[in-house]
Write a structure and sequence with these properties.
The longest helix has 27 residues. Helix 1 packs across helix 2, helix 2 runs antiparallel to helix 3 and helix 2 crosses helix 4. The chain is an all-alpha fold. The chain folds into 2 domains: about 90 residues, Orthogonal Bundle (Rna Polymerase Sigma Factor, Chain: A); about 60 residues, Orthogonal Bundle (Arc Repressor Mutant, subunit A). It starts with a helix and ends with a helix. It has 9 helices and no strands.
Length: about 190
């Protein structure tokens, strides 16, 4: 969906739940994948994703276009709900890799001859991601899983673009170091 189509749907969605349904269908798998990636718990991810869209529907009339995609607003809602989840549970669940890989594949229903290779890559990425500080996980998830622009990520995280650039650089370096430490021998 291009930004012009999205803007048209947003104008309609402020008046019609049916138009919001198209936005919902487009963003649901993306928001769910992002939340699941952060939590590693299918049921909690489903709950937070649902609450994200309920909040979006409740507040759609207040939504103001700031030159970014509607998805950035949804990710910000989900981000805040994830923070609340971590505060409430004061714990971080270790991923069940089999469940994570199955859930991600279920979301996107990928049929690919390289599925085994993809599953192994997903397992490796998830294993390294869980070892990173939550802030780094958040930034990398928004950048590479949610595929958001730096401006959108900076808004979600309430920081400047230059601060985000530093955090993104540190996150990537940390990821690379941990990845190489864990998997370097496996890849040789």
């Amino acid at each position: 969906m291009d930004i012009e189509q999205e803007q048209q749907l947003l104008r309609k969605a402020k008046k019609s739940l049916e138009a919001f349904g198209e936005l919902y269908n487009y963003y649901l798998p993306k928001i769910y994948a992002y939340v699941f990636n952060r939590l590693g718990d299918r049921h909690a991810a489903e709950d937070i994703t649902s609450i994200t869209f309920v909040k979006a529907i409740d507040n759609i009339k207040k939504y103001q276009d700031r030159g970014q995609r509607f998805g950035a607003w949804l990710y910000k809602i989900a981000h805040n709900l994830i923070i609340d989840f971590f505060k409430e549970h004061n714990t971080f669940k270790i991923y069940n890799y089999d469940e994570a890989i199955k859930s991600i594949d279920d979301i996107f229903a990928e049929e690919d001859s390289r599925l085994i290779e993809k599953e192994e890559n997903k397992r490796m990425v998830l294993e390294v991601m869980r070892l990173l500080p939550r802030t780094y996980q958040q930034i990398l998830s928004l950048k590479f899983f949610a595929e958001l622009e730096n401006e959108e990520i900076a808004e979600i995280l309430n920081c400047s673009k230059s601060t985000l650039a530093v955090k993104l650089h540190r996150s990537l370096n940390s990821f690379k170091q941990k990845f190489n430490k864990i998997f370097k021998q496996e890849l040789l």
